[in-house]
Amino acid sequence: MKHRRGFNPLNRMASHRKALHRNMVTSLFRQERIFTTKAKALEVRRTAEKMITRAKEDNVHNRRIVSSRLFDEAIVAKLFTSIAPRMKDRNGGYTRILKLGERKGDAAEVVVLELVDYKLDTSEKKKSKKGDDKSVAKGNSGEKGK
Asked: In angstroms, rounded to a whole number, what is the distance separating the alpha carbons of residues 139 and 144?
């Protein structure tokens, strides 16, 4: 039997799938939180966790392996200097998946893939403009009439 072996090809060719993984893992390490579908998140999570495990030991060999799988050298540096040291005491489980619901267009399950120690910035830096409050008060939420 072939249960739970291999990976989810995500209905893509190998080169497209490899590029998808590289893009999404790079975005995850850059922003530390991404919104995507459940199937993609489960696959990208595997790749990201393996890279974080590699980055916990900072040496030339591990840097070369990780940089061969990421697009941006600045993100590689961030992974080795910022993200991996925060995860030093964890033995895996560096990411979490939070379910958001279904996407309206195709009913795909949308999730948030984020690093476990991600802190959401709740301080209000941007204050709403006076003109924005009027449109909400009138019931004009930006949707066009049907």
From this structure: 12
Tell me the sheet residues that pair with 96: 114
Q: What pTM does this model have?
A: 0.79
Half-sphere exposure in the Cβ direction for 82 (13 Å, CA): 13
pLDDT tens digit sequence for 14-63: 999 999 999 999 999 999 999 999 999 999 999 999 999 999 999 999 99
- HSE-CB at 16 with a 13 A cutoff on CA atoms is 6
Is 130 domain-assigned? no
Q: What whole-number distance in Å separates Cα of residue 96 and Cα of residue 48?
A: 11
Integer Cα distance of 110 and 130 in angstroms:
33
CATH of the domain at 99: 3.90.1030.10
- Cβ atoms of 100 and 25 within 8 Å: the answer is no
Distance, CA of 30 to CA of 113 (rounded, Å): 13
Q: Which domain, by its residues, includes 30?
A: 14-118
